[in-house]
Design a protein that fits this description.
By secondary structure, the protein is an alpha+beta fold. It has one domain: Thiol:disulfide interchange protein DsbD, N-terminal domain (Immunoglobulin-like), CATH 2.60.40.1250. The protein is built from 1 helix and 11 strands. The strands form 3 sheets. A 4-stranded antiparallel beta sheet has the order 1-2-8-5, with no helix packed on it. Strands 6-7-3-10 form a 4-stranded antiparallel beta sheet, with no helix packed on it. Strands 4-9-11 form a 3-stranded antiparallel beta sheet, with no helix packed on it. The chain starts with a helix and ends with a strand.
Length: 157
């Protein structure tokens, strides 16, 4: 009986530890350091619509710009994708120029700091008037470490 109780307590402790660990990991992802908002103009008669995505980055962190201008960081650059129920005919994303960052080991690359606005021009499919789904992939870093990447999802009319 005593052994069974000890095993039960160990199993319960393992479950609690797993839940706590999971919560800590979720709290430490890149999307926790970036506030994102999106607004959209009304689509014009031809179905063209402009979407503005604003990223407010925690002052202690930066994001990799797009283009990042360094092949080593290509997979970590900030990206925006826009979809809808009827896939748009085209999406053109205009990313702002990033600031040049220099690292003795990694070389030069571009980053975003502070507040950044990204403009996307969407050519909607004929008859599509539903909301647009905006996904922003971010990879937040500070001086000595980076958080796991995350995708921030937004919706605009």
């Amino acid at each position: 009986m005593l052994i069974r109780r000890g095993l039960t307590q160990m199993a319960l402790a393992a479950v609690v530890l797993t839940v706590v660990s999971s919560s800590v990991v979720q709290a430490r992802t890149s999307d926790k350091k970036v506030k994102a908002t999106a607004t959209a103009d009304k689509a014009d008669a031809d179905g063209k619509q402009v979407v503005m995505i604003t990223l407010e980055i925690d002052p202690k962190y930066y994001l990799y710009a797009n283009p990042v201008d360094n092949a080593n960081f290509e997979a970590t650059k900030t990206t925006v994708t826009i979809t809808s129920n009827k896939n748009p005919d085209s999406v053109k994303v205009d990313y702002p120029a990033g600031e040049i960052e220099k690292d003795k080991d990694a070389g030069e690359y571009k980053i975003y700091k502070g507040k950044v606005t990204i403009k996307a021009t969407v050519q909607r499919a004929k008859g599509d008037s539903g909301p647009l789904e905006v996904a922003v992939k971010v990879y937040a870093c500070e001086d000595k470490s980076c958080l796991p990447p995350a995708t921030i999802k937004l919706s605009v009319p």
